[in-house]
Amino acid sequence: MMMRTFLPITLAAGIALLPCSAQAEGKLSLKSVNIDLPAGDDMFPNGPGADAINNNCLACHSADMVLNQPALPKAQWEAEVDKMIAAYKAPIDPKDVGAILDYLASVKGVN
Q: In sequence order, what DSSP letters do the residues of 30-45 get, joined into one string?
């Protein structure tokens, strides 16, 4: 019995809302948007390991973004690099990890 009452109400509501959905489809418009991103041509400063960090880390980060981080002990930099590889799937060549850590420790490490 309840189904007999519910079905006509559902059909009536659907028919009543049909013109609304047709209007919504006609109003949808997509527009291209242009944005200006900050220049990302900067490389990490020269030094031992600069090639390794430039070749691996610039795919996701600007050099400025990394160099503006606080100075950290090498163990903490290692945890950050491990997080980039494990959590964010950073395409870091395993043979370059040591050179990257040495570079970060020399440029942004705590003495």
A: ------PPPP----PP
Please state, in angstroms and rounded to a whole number, the distance separating the CA atoms of residues 52 and 55.
5
The whole-angstrom separation of Cα 74 and Cα 49 is 14
Question: Quick one: 13 exposed, middle or buried, by C-beta within 10 A (0-12, 13-18, 19+)?
Answer: exposed
Q: Is 23 a residue whose pLDDT tops 70?
A: no
Predicted TM-score of the model (pTM): 0.64
Decide if 82 contacts 63 (C-beta within 8 A): no
Q: What is the 3-state secondary structure (H, E, C) of 72-103?
A: ECHHHHHHHHHHHHHCCCCCCCHHHHHHHHHH
Q: Which amino acid is at 49?
A: G
Strand partners for 109: 72
Of 38, 13, 85, give the one whose Cα is nearest residue 101: 85
